[in-house]
Amino acid sequence: MATASIQKSQLQMVFQAGVDGEGYPVLKRKNFSSLKTTATPDQMLAVATALSGLQQHVLYAVERNNAYDIHA
Question: What is the model's pLDDT at position 27?
Fold first, then answer.
């Protein structure tokens, strides 16, 4: 059976920079690499909320991107 282990994790903050001509949100993303693989969703949200106050646009979403190694 194969197993997977997290090798890298990244925090991605998504901001709404406005709306397009059809009324859909225009999104911009900022990535923060070297996130601890053990970081909890609550910790990530707290950091993103604190950092969003320093940004020009409104925080729209917080995402996590993980890279895995898969072993047989």
Answer: 98
Distance in angstroms (rounded) separating the CA atoms of residues 23 and 59:
18
* Placement of tokens 């059809």 in the chain: 22
pTM attached to this predicted model: 0.86
Please report, for the chain, the start and end positions of each structural domain, with discontinuous segments joined by +: 3-71
Measured CA angle at 28 (ends 27, 34), to 5 deg: 130
Radius of gyration of the chain (CA): 15
Residue partners of 66: CB distance under 8 A and separation at least 6: 6, 8, 9, 10, 37
